[in-house]
Amino acid sequence: MQKHKANSGFHPGPQTRGTLSQDVHLNADRIKFQTKDATDVVVQEIKQDVGGDSGWHSHPGFVVGIVKSGSVSITVGCATTTYSAGQTFLETGNTPVIARNASNTDPLVLEATYFVPKGVPTRRDANPPTC
């Protein structure tokens, strides 16, 4: 089966990438953060037109997304949740996901921060799940 690509209404911006070159073990203020081996931290703004979507994909490691403006429907596997401006969502590479602009009138703007193994791309195209 051919993998599905992003639609034309999906506009990822340039990525800013930095590397945590050593294992990280932090635990402060009831927040725990840990890595094994070198990890890249990548920041990117993503825009979607009305009717746009990301195409089915997954991420190595994980991504923290913040809705800057508009609203987004995130389908992970077969379950969909909608997030509005100011809300945050998480994605991991375990299940295919698609992000759709949830507005019929407004463009969507997201800020994404990816935590991936050093040198690995932030996105893998995927096939949709069978629901």
Descriptive report:
With 131 residues, this protein is an all-beta fold. It has one domain: Sandwich (Jelly Rolls), CATH 2.60.120. Helices cover 0% and strands 56% of the residues. It has a 5-stranded antiparallel sheet, with no helix packed on it. Strands 8-7-10 form a 3-stranded antiparallel sheet, with no helix packed on it. Strands 2-3 form a two-stranded antiparallel ribbon. A hairpin with a 2-residue loop joins β2 (25-28) and β3 (31-34). The model has no long low-confidence stretch (mean pLDDT 92).
Keywords:
five-stranded antiparallel β-sheet, mainly beta, 12 strands, 131 residues, Jelly Rolls, three-stranded antiparallel β-sheet
Summarize the structure.
By secondary structure, the chain is mostly beta strands. It contains no helices and twelve strands.
CATH top level assignment: Mainly Beta
Number of beta-strand segments: 12
Order of helix and strand elements from N to C terminus: EEEEEEEEEEEE
Summarize model confidence as the mean pLDDT: 92
Computed CA radius of gyration, to the nearest angstrom:
15 Å
| Model regions low in confidence, pLDDT < 50 over at least 5 residues | none
Walk across the major sheet and give the strand order: 1-4-11-6-9
Any idea what the CATH architecture is?
A: Sandwich
Distance between the termini: 16 Å
Number of domain units: 1
Shape: globular
Characterize the biggest β-sheet. Answer: 5 strands, antiparallel
Helices and strands in order:
Elements: E1 10-20, E2 25-28, E3 31-34, E4 39-48, E5 57-58, E6 62-69, E7 71-76, E8 79-84, E9 88-92, E10 97-101, E11 108-117, E12 124-125
Antiparallel strand pairs: 1-4, 2-3, 4-11, 5-12, 6-9, 6-11, 7-8, 7-10
